[in-house]
Design brief:
Shape: globular
InterPro entries: Poly_Biosynth_Transport, Polysacc_synth
GO cellular component, one term: plasma membrane
Main location: membrane
Radius of gyration: 22 Å
Strand content: under 5%
Largest sheet: none
Number of strands: 0
Helix content: over 70%
Order of helices and strands: HHHHHHHHHHHHHHHHH
Structural class: mainly alpha
Number of helices: 17
Membrane topology: Multi-pass membrane protein
Subcellular location: Cell membrane
Length: 470
């Protein structure tokens, strides 16, 4: 499948899934409030810690092994990858459950009820194989399969949550049941797509290959997901579930935007890895696509800075309006995360995935320590500041690391320019109470200016993505 077709399918799924979830949000918020979403945010984080660590087990071995293996060897390897992810997921469950219980007893706070905790843990284990499968689908370029499955997961999630809320009156755990239903579908899909019967001796032979480089990847995943779990638990303790609910709601918009970003990222991944292998890589195709990614994220940041408060109030019946400033700040974090894309691809394509993962782990570790100092004094803003610390350290590390290989041009002007403009615009409109129509007109004017400035980039991108008829 061409980069154009891959990107199109990823883009369709990445637009469709957030839109489906967004359409359900006004329905959910008729019965659910910030505290419900805060509790689910903590539970989903615990589940993400399990599935993230399990899915990371083979992250560094997959790109290389899938490029050289064929036939039965490839089949055995993929079965070993899924088996490894499941085993690591179960191992995480064994550690996390007693750890959470002891932490709750130590601090005298049971953040989640027993039922919610068990549902979250189950969802984490169910998601383990699907998380690994997403990586496989991305490397193999099976964008259509990925799109169909993510649509199906979103729809079954909404159906189950709605049934629990409006038919069973199960408000407290409705979001958890929907989460489990989507995870179960992902597990089933992973089994059908990639898991094949294999002997114990074959597993013994292929599991080491599946787990090659797992130490760095798993350490990075533990650091990243562990930081998030600690951050949300810490926030719940200092600020309560309502504040955590506002924060997680702001993260919803960041994550929805990130899903769209990942569509283009997955679409260009195989091409970027090929470009990285060149003696003097220029990343011509990668940079063309990534310019559009950065412009898109910058436009989302600017949009929320201008009219985000009104949009959130409309979607949530006014219950989550205070999350607007958090949203802008988190979207700027996401914009910063798009920096140094070609630098990251160079490291991964040249077999330096361990270095990339270690840089990530180090930056997360420092940001994790900053939470202890910042959250007690600044609450949610303390957690957001720690994210800025993490992303700046990680990107600086990538810039420095790639200089040892080859010199890549700086191409992240939209990242830093868009972030600064969004921050100042958000502060300005908080202080100056302009009408919605005035802010909307200013926003449209800003978008027209951006389109005019980047017209050549859009033309090049369209030409690159246009299907070729042979």
């Amino acid at each position: 499948m061409s980069v154009a077709n891959r990107t199109t399918w990823y883009f369709l799924s990445s637009i469709g899934v957030p839109l489906i979830s967004l359409a359900a949000l006004p329905l959910y918020t008729t019965r659910l409030g910030p505290s419900h979403f805060g509790a689910f945010a903590l539970g989903a984080t615990i589940a993400g810690l399990i599935s993230g660590v399990a899915g990371a087990t083979s992250t560094l071995s997959l790109p290389h092994q899938l490029s050289i293996l064929e036939g039965r060897d490839r089949t055995h390897y993929l079965s070993a990858v899924l088996t490894a992810s499941l085993l690591v997921g179960l191992l995480c469950l064994v550690f996390i459950y007693p750890l959470y219980t002891q932490a709750s007893n130590l601090f005298g706070k049971d953040y989640l009820g027993r039922k919610s905790l068990l549902l979250a843990l189950l969802a984490g284990v169910l998601n383990a194989m699907w998380t690994a499968s997403v990586e496989i689908l991305g490397i193999e370029g099976k964008a259509k399969t990925y799109a169909i499955l993510t649509f199906a997961q979103a729809l079954i999630n909404i159906a189950v949550v709605s049934f629990c809320i409006f038919s069973l009156g199960e408000n407290d755990n409705a979001l958890f049941y929907g989460f489990i239903a989507a995870a179960a579908l992902g597990t089933f899909s992973a089994i059908v797509l990639f898991l094949r019967p294999t002997s114990l001796s074959s597993l013994k032979m292929w599991l080491p290959k599946a787990c090659a480089g797992s130490t760095s990847a798993v350490s990075a995943s533990i650091a990243e997901n562990g930081k998030l779990a600690f951050e949300r638990s810490y926030l719940a303790g200092f600020a309560g579930f309502a504040a955590l609910g506002l924060y997680s709601h702001a993260q919803y918009y960041k994550n929805a935007t990130m899903t769209l970003l990942n569509a283009l990222s997955r679409g260009v991944l195989p091409t970027a890895l090929e470009e990285a292998k060149l003696p003097q890589p220029t990343f011509a195709v990668t940079q063309e696509v990534w310019d559009i990614v950065q412009i898109f994220v910058a436009c989302v940041c600017i949009g929320f800075a201008f009219i985000g408060r009104d949009v959130i109030a409309f979607l949530t019946h006014g219950k989550f309006t205070d999350a607007a400033s958090y949203t802008v700040a988190l979207l700027i974090v996401l914009l910063l995360q798009t920096a140094a894309k070609t630098h990251a691809m160079l490291l991964l394509g040249r077999g330096l995935g361990n270095l990339y993962a270690n840089l990530n782990t180090a930056s997360i570790g420092i940001a994790f320590l900053s939470l202890f100092l910042l959250v007690p004094h600044f609450g949610v803003w303390g957690a957001i500041i720690s994210m800025y610390i993490q992303v700046f350290l990680h990107k600086i590390g990538q810039y420095i690391a790639t200089k040892r290989i080859t010199k890549l041009p700086f191409s992240d002007y939209w990242v830093y320019g868009g972030g600064i403009f969004s921050a100042f615009a958000n502060i300005f409109f908080i202080q100056k109470e302009y009408s919605f129509s005035t802010r909307a007109l200013l926003l449209i004017s800003a978008y027209i200016m951006i389109i005019w400035m980047m017209r050549r980039n859009f033309a090049n991108f369209y030409y690159r993505m246009k299907p070729r008829h042979t």
